[in-house]
Amino acid sequence: MRTSRSAVLALAALLLGGALWAGGALGQAPRVPALGPLPAVPSPPDNPTTAAKVELGKLLFWDTRLSGDVSTSCATCHDPKLDWGDGGALSRGYPGTEHWRNSQTVLNAAYFSKLFWGGEVTSLESQASAAATGNVAGNGDPIMMEERLRQVPEYVRRFKEVFGVERPTIGIAWMAIAAFERTLVSKAEQVPFDRYARGDQSALAAGARRGLALFQGKAGCVQCHNGPLLSDENYHNLGVPRNPAFENTPLRQITLRYQHVIRGVPEKLYRSADRDLGLYYTTKQEADKGKFRTPSLRELKYTAPYMHSGVFGALEEVVEFYNRGGDENLNKSPLMRPLGLSEQEKKDLLAFLLSLSSDQPLIVEPPDLPDYAPMKVEARP
Questions:
Q1: What is the pLDDT of residues 326-368, one digit of tens each?
Q2: Per-residue pLDDT tens digits for 16-64
Q3: Residue 6 pLDDT > 50, yes or no?
Q4: S-S: 74 plus which of 9, 61, 105, 320, CB 3.0-4.6 Å?
Q5: Are 326 and 336 in contact (CB under 8 A)?
Q6: C-alpha–C-alpha distance, residues 130 and 116, integer Å
Q7: What SS3 class is residue 102?
Q8: For the chain, how big is the Rg over CA atoms in Å?
Q9: Backbone φ and ψ of 235, nearest 5°
Q10: Are strands 292-293 and 235-236 parallel, antiparallel or unpaired?
């Protein structure tokens, strides 16, 4: 359904000219990056995307040989059949550990300049490396993983074709995985809100349109969830409650305390560690305890559970959490205040949030992985 030129211009002013938010929790009207469809996927100059590189990266994404005990691949924690996460409230972690954070989807990760809940890395290439080698993730030794790749003739052939090298190296393996991940993005024509932002007034029902107004107005969501990615990529402490799965699982608590030690947390704090410290691990600043990078709101329909602790299994719970202004917590953001939304307003806001998801989930079938072959030993005279 086409709309009038005046309606398109009015919509563009709202969505593309810098969304103006007013009447939220702080009673301010700051200008924030405009909502709208995602731009073209970035292709770094030092790792340009090619079809052959993407195909190689797809193989490596599913290959458990890029881990310590060949039990874990990228797809283990980012399974397309589980909406590119692992489907659980908290990640499984490497065998012998149990993680304390939710495994985020890699959908649209191509657009983030900071990866992981704590924003510890700044590229998909470094994210792939950190995940595969991290002690409680892949726990892979780079030398061992590289040698495994070199013992697979198909990988030797593909690495030479894509990168011009005689033998695979682990550094360029991460580049191939990153190239594949840059294909895992929302398509504007499949997302109701994006179709609406492009001028199709029929793409959003009345409730979702009211929810958009709430999102940018009374509810104040746009303060942190703005721009095409619907994330300011900043860090906030929202007062998110801890997950009972962490509270009741000694191995998760052991793993968290190990995290405290390897991230250089002072011993006094390490010995009493009972919660995820978020950005503090990087900055060691008291004010950063409990702060986490703002996630994107795209594809929410498919990516439950929510929050860094995976504590909310349904979007209704998330809306109610924000409506009450979060829970009490040291360093909680002043942006977190009761919203006073009515039951109808909560339903409208939920309708808008669901409109940020594609009509169908993005499914990619696992590839057939190439096999090892015995090393050829030259005959000696």
A1: 998 889 999 999 999 999 999 999 999 999 999 999 999 999 9
A2: 334 433 333 333 335 899 999 999 999 999 999 999 999 999 999 999 9
A3: no
A4: 61
A5: yes
A6: 10
A7: coil
A8: 22
A9: -115, 135
A10: antiparallel
In three-state secondary structure terms, 289 is: coil
- Phi, psi at 87, each rounded to 5°: 80, -10
CA-CA distance, 229 to 304, in Å (whole number)?
18
Please report which residue ranges of the chain form alpha helices under DSSP H: 5-15, 51-62, 74-77, 124-133, 142-150, 153-163, 170-181, 192-197, 206-216, 244-247, 250-262, 267-271, 280-283, 315-323, 343-354
- 182-201 pLDDT tens trace: 999 999 999 999 999 999 99
- Topology of 51-181 in CATH? Cytochrome Bc1 Complex; Chain D, domain 2 (1.10.760)
Helices 343-354, 315-323: crossing angle, 10 deg rounding = 130
- pTM for this predicted structure: 0.91
Q: Which two tokens stand for residue 25?
A: 């929790």
Cα 51 to Cα 161, 162, 185, 365, 376: the distances in Å are 12, 9, 16, 17, 31
